[in-house]
Structures are given as structure tokens and as C-alpha cells.
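Q: What would this chain look like folded?
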Amino acid sequence: MKAITRYQAVDGTEFPTEHQCREYEQLRLLVAGVMSYLGTIPDEVKDGKGWLQHDPETVVRCRVGIIRLCRSMPQFDSFPVFRHEPAAEIHPNSSAGRILDDTGGPLSEAWYRFRCIDDQGREHQQPYFAINGPDDNHECIEDRR
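A: My prediction, written as C-alpha cells:
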């Protein structure tokens, strides 16, 4: 028999080393700081009953904040999309989204939220509604402009 040591982050994600776990938790805090301007998603939006209205400029500022965070991380150096200027033009459904989706974790979660927000600042349950517009039975759950 041998002992196996793993390190668990506050969200339950496990890592083989303490260093990796601490880096992950630090990243989670940085992403949470950027995304805090959007607040939490109401249950009615999560359930697909409507959308959450954000100020579109706040959404863009948060998206740029996530891009800047990615630019500070060496693993994204080889992807030209993260160097595009102005960063505000990087579309949520661009290759940046595919790359971040593959990384998983807090960056992927944050970018998925941007994919669910349309050009008018309405945050929907899923990207489909951000692309195609809300259903007839959808309504504004909360206005945070």
C-alpha cells in the first residue's frame, strides 16, 4: 500500500501538487474579481425563463478584463486571437472562446457567460438565445443597467 496525496481547491477541483492548486485558486479569485461587475445569475435565467439585462459597456469591460488576464498567462502566448487590438472586438464566439472552453475551469466558465450575452447586454440561459434572440415567452428577469 502507498499513500497518495492530492490537493483540493475550494470548488472541489483536485490537483497533484499544492502549487498547482494554489495557482488555480488564485486564477479563480482573479476571474471572480473581473466578473463581479456582472453579479450572479438569477435562478429564473438559469432555468431559461428569461434574461438578465446588463449595461452592454459593462459586459465589454468584463470581457476585456478576461482577455487581459489571458494575455498575462504564458499558455496563451501562442494564440494570436488574444493579442488582437482592440480587445473589445474579440467576439465571444471567436476562436478565443474555443480555446478557453478547452482549458476548462474559471476562464472557460467566464467566457461561457459572455457567449450567453447578446449585443444588447441581455444574458440568456444559453448561447442559442444570445444568437437567435429570446423566445416569445421570455421576459426581462432583472435590469442591472
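The chain has one domain: 41-143.
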